[in-house]
Amino acid sequence: MEHLDSVPPRRGLVIFLNGTSSSGKSSIAAELLRILDEPYFHMPVDAFHAMRSRAEIPPDRLDTVLHRTWQGYHRAVAGMAAAGNNVVMDHVLSAEWRLTDCLSLFVPQDVVFVGVHCPLEELERRERERGDRPSGLAARQLAQVHARGVYDIECDTGSSTPRACAGRIKDFLPARPTPTAFQRLRAAR
Ligand SMILES: Nc1ncnc2c1ncn2[C@@H]1O[C@H](COP(=O)(O)OP(=O)(O)OP(=O)(O)O)[C@@H](O)[C@H]1O
């Protein structure tokens, strides 16, 4: 292996999976990494929370610590893409500022914005089956997460397997229409 001093500049693609907890984002991301031909990094927001030390956070500081974690996560994804790395982002846009922040950071033509949908009954069934998510979390997120309803491509994991969803996203990539969802969302601001 040759150790390079530099590589040609380029921008990476961000496949942005947005859906509630238990909607199937991580499962689709795992399939995408398996089937996509180019190298991709799966960057789930959960991984950033998991990186934090276990030191107890005083209740009055929790909101600030969480906010900084989300802000840092958005910038980490933007940084990876700016260095030419392709990213599968796995996030829950359950507050308006998160979308606003991502719209201000990402190159809008380089984002494939994917709406990951799942019927409420199935979300609740998965939550019960998993047992590692607070009951009712997905239901509380549902309305805000898809509030904009503007996507490049949408999946319904209630009726499609993660593999089928990933296959559709892969097939969508070579002839992505413009303006992209992020370009349309930016223009509407
Ligand atoms: N298309 C699908 N059909 C059936 N079950 C699915 C499907 N996609 C995911 N699941 C199951 O639903 C549960 C949640 O899936 P997954 O972890 O991919 O969701 P997530 O959106 O990443 O959740 P979170 O944001 O809470 O981490 C898992 O038990 C998974 O096996």
UniProtKB/TrEMBL annotation:
Gene3D superfamilies: P-loop containing nucleotide triphosphate hydrolases. InterPro entries: CPT, P-loop_NTPase. Pfam families: CPT. It comes from the Bacteria. ATP binds at G19, T20, S21, S22, S23, G24, K25, S26. One of its GO terms (molecular function) is transferase activity. The active site is at D46. This is AAA family ATPase. It comes from Streptomyces luteolifulvus.
